[in-house]
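Our preliminary data section would be incomplete without showing what the modeling component actually yields. Below, a chain of 681 amino acids is followed by its predicted structure, encoded as tokens that our downstream tools consume directly.
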Amino acid sequence: MRTIYYLPIAVLAFASISCKDKTNTQTKVETKNFDIANLDTTAIPGNDFYQYATGGWAKAHPIKDEYSRYGSFELLIENNQKQIKGLIEELGTTEHKQGSVEQKIGDLFALGMDSTKLNSEGVQPLKEQLDAINKASSKEDIIKLAGELRMYANSPFFTIYVGADDKNSSMNIVQLYQGGLGLGERDYYLATDSTSVALRKGYSELIKTQFVNAGYADADAAKSADAILKIETALAKDHFKKEDTRRPELNYHKMKVEDLNKSVAAFDWQMFFDAADVKGFTELNVCQIEPVATAVKLIQTAPIEDLKVYLSWNLINAAATSLSDDFVNADFNFYGKQLSGRKVLQPRWKRTVNMVDNSLSEAVGQMYVAKYFPAEAKDKMLKLVKNLQSTLGERINNLTWMSAETKEKAQEKLNTFNVKIGYPDKWKDYTSLEVKKDDSYWANIVRANKFSYNEMIKKIDKPVDRSEWHMPPQMVNAYYNPTTNEICFPAGILQPPFFYMDADDAVNYGAIGVVIGHEMSHGFDDQGSKYDKDGNLADWWTADDSKKFTERAQVLVQHFNNIEVLPGVFANGDFTLGENIGDFGGLQISYNAFEKTDQAKAGEKIDGFTPEQRFFLSYAGVWAGNIRDEEMLRRTKTDPHSLGEWRVNGPLPHMDAWYKAFGISEKDSLYIPKEKRADIW
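Predicted structure:
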């Protein structure tokens, strides 16, 4: 399903990846924590460092048909999926008490794997929910159904969630956010380029196919697709552009519930909130007023029959991957093939593992950590974090463009980082979640989604739990959350190629060290810099320093704007600025910290490379991979991270140390004159 929870966290990458089995990888880690076979030494480092550092890996790992991108991340996904599958299958060898997490994980997996049952059921698991929508006869019914759907499916019209108040970060608040787009990104509805036009046509065909699968006549399905596209296009026209959703000051409009009618739109808000089970609050934040007002107007003015098919589509689209092969294949043909360029559907066991992992994430994570997470990794990470934190503090002190007043505030923020490593101290309690083996797969997914939704709703007007994790421990990723001023490194990322227990410092500082520095830098990027040490949206800069920061950041904006990722398609330097600052800052901080190590000071070569060279090669290796053109287009349109190639070739030409390490000169195409290089943190 495609439910989105909006949290202001800055993640390393959009990937759900988890740890390798420490019991069968340690030999490789000790002997091959840096493999020169991953290089393409026929390439010139100064012309294409990404190809030079990762070309060998890419040639040895051609993209698989089931992937739109296949890199070191995806390789780890495969290992992770096999390990989780092994854990789940172990549960099937013994009996488990009804209501135990073992029973819930095992039974949900069994349901997802039962293709015979799924195919025999067809649309039946949705029948009661579709009937309820089809029986709607008034706008009041539509409002209630929209609220109810938010609890377990997609968010029609706009979404509602609970999160920290940006200007009172110690408390949670109800928030309304633009939503309701099955294509996700507004530009897909409005752009006139051939790719966008083709996607709209493909999306329309998907809707028709899924309505036919749901039992609609062909003519009714076609009519429904037209109505749905009309509604979603109207929503998209008034959606904030993606660049503006990254500006927190533009997405904060706190108001009394009683003022919604005059400040947003006249509407039966109480009916909607009651239907969504959002109760007992007097204030909320409307992140984007205009898109929400447009959604309300559509509810009030669009024909009821159009609104009913739109709600039905939100349900069908959310459930498609949990139903019969007809629904799954149609979903894949558009979202997988046309939108991302994948050739074949992933095997059922992988899809089911992902669903179980999403539905009972911390229950799976607790099992995973117990078997695969080496405790000593946490101690090593704590030391690395401390080293980089100290180095960033030194860099802040040495900034020539920042005043002493702002430096003091920056140091306060740095020193109050809440650091989370490995896994949460307290695990989520899944006692209230029921998994029934005699029920449909979708019915159990609904209960899992409602469980997560209710966990969120319980936070309304409650203090923010700063011990809560926003990623499961088995995920290979990391994040910075500005409202809690925290950096988090789940157990999943503490493994090769990011982190090695026995690697030399150049390799670890080049990989996990940059990841740590990346997340620290998010606290001072174009978004994070607008939050103070307590996580409140507040201006702690002097006016002059703020102006200088913006000017310096603009160097990166312009640099990435000029990157042509495909013929005629350019990167979006504004949209990717935060992540580019994260990469650039992470590299600078980690490299400076690495310079203090004995290995860097000794300067001895390994495999023919200096410590400095191994640092940069290790960093590039994290982003090794192959990617399809369709996925490059999709990510350029929707992802605030630069493409893997440009997370290497983009920031490195702004680093003086890289030039020195590889002897880069004016004759090299990546060369940037020193006076034109970025200089921020």
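The longest helix spans residues 375-398. Residues 1-6, 14-31 have pLDDT under 50 and may be disordered. Preliminary results of this kind motivate Aim 1 of the renewal.
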